[in-house]
Amino acid sequence: MDETFDTATVRSKLMTWAAREAHWYRYRLPILMGFVGTAALFALYMTIVTVAQGWQHAIELFGQDAWLVLPIMSGFGVQVGLYTYLRSMLRRGSRSSKVMMGAGGGTSTAAMVACCAHHVADLLPLLGLSAAASFLAAYKIPFMLIGLAMNLIGIVVILRTIRAEQRHLRSLESK
What we know:
Layout: H1 7-53, H2 55-90, H3 95-116, H4 124-127, H5 130-138, H6 140-174
């Protein structure tokens, strides 16, 4: 039993493992926040339809509009994840990415509300919003397509901002 303890090998293996974990760790929070954003938008969608018409109708409507609802929700989740990554990369947010995520997220939410706004038309006259409900119901699909397009634009803008900041950080490190 003449085994020697090679501290250099152990240190090397430990550093390799730590570097691999550190690389993966910076993506954990953005991925988690992306899923949370997707789930939050799904919850908002289901809550609005359930309050207006009931759980069974919410499930039926989701099944009918899933071809647009799922990409909108996913796009919003990707935006949230990318934004979280950008925030962690800079330790403070870029104003342009906040504006684009806000615009994309707001449009996504408006598209989801437009999808089910005609179901709350019975309540909206009490609030003086029956014309708004009719308008949103009549243009549900275009609003949802606009929401999807805004998601894509938001994703592209945040990705470009991340790439620019990465180039900037690399140039600072090389000096």
